[in-house]
Automatic annotation (TrEMBL):
Domain of life: Bacteria
Name recorded for this polypeptide: WecB/TagA/CpsF family glycosyltransferase
Protein's UniProt keywords contain Transferase: yes
Molecular function via GO: hexosyltransferase activity
InterPro entries linked to this entry: WecG_TagA_CpsF
Transmembrane regions listed in the UniProt entry: none
Keyword annotations of the record: Glycosyltransferase, Transferase
Organism in which the protein naturally occurs: Hymenobacter polaris
Length: 252
């Protein structure tokens, strides 16, 4: 069983990357309704600010250490070096292992163009992967009829894994709301769709190890992300310092 360590108000799941992959695929194969959140600094600060969102993370089956700072703090508290378990790395790893195990996947979110690029790459690199379906919902609140139709389509496709890319916190709220309605392991993976589709580049491994991925994304989208990264990162450090001065909890 993967252990957990508290970072701010959220319990982060810790352990080797390969164990995350195996656990997620087991959740999918069990045909139960589960969901996985990939936590970075922005998500943890949002959970601190919003009790309802904090509850969603607390109910998740796994909360992976997606961001470098989150992984480092969780590992420091666990007493070993915890590697990142980022959505951008989980998506290709899970797809490859799903193909090997004969499990199916479904992609929900972003645009039709992105989904077509994902399917094209998967069919080229993983010809045995079972793609149960895709859906690009409109970038607006869905009507009850649309929501019901999308949920019914996913249920009819009956995937083992459901990758959800609606952006944080929308994708996490969507997964929590659909627990019990979708018999799959749902994963909120956000930007991972664009990366897998080849429409957004990742920094080299050495730059990621220096926690520079946030700076790269800020450079790409300064207007949209300046507040998230400059203000939120500072807030995270302040809250972390506060937490370090009080007793912490650990789950095994």
């Amino acid at each position: 069983m993967l252990a957990k360590q508290q970072v701010l108000d959220t319990f982060i799941t810790t352990g080797p990357f390969e164990e995350f992959v195996d656990t997620i695929l087991q959740l999918g194969a069990a045909r139960r309704s589960a969901y996985v959140c990939c936590a970075n600094v922005h998500m943890l600060v949002e959970a601190h600010r919003d009790p309802s969102f904090r509850h969603i993370l607390a109910d998740a089956d796994l909360v992976t250490p997606d961001g470098g700072p989150v992984a480092s703090v969780a590992g420091w508290r666990a007493g070993y070096a915890q590697g990142r378990v980022a959505g951008m790395d989980l998506v290709p790893a899970l797809m490859a292992e799903a193909a090997r195990r004969g499990q199916s996947v479904y992609f929900y979110g972003t645009t039709e163009a992105v989904l077509q690029a994902i399917v094209a790459r998967a069919q080229r690199e993983l010809p045995t992967l079972r793609i149960a379906g895709t859906c690009a919902p409109p970038f607006r609140p869905l009507t009850p009829a649309e929501e019901a139709a999308h949920t019914a389509a996913i249920a009819a496709a009956d995937p083992d894994l459901l990758f959800v890319a609606l952006g944080c916190p929308r994708q996490e709220k969507w997964m929590a709301a659909h627990r019990g309605q979708v018999r799959a392991c749902m994963l909120g993976v956000g930007q991972a769709f664009l990366v897998y589709a080849g429409l957004e580049q990742r920094l080299p491994v050495w730059a990621r190890r220096l926690w520079l991925e946030w700076a790269y994304r800020l450079w790409l989208e300064p207007r949209r992300l300046w507040r998230r990264y400059l203000v939120t990162n500072t807030r995270f450090l302040y809250l972390l310092a506060q937490q370090t001065l009080r007793p912490r909890k650990a789950l095994g």
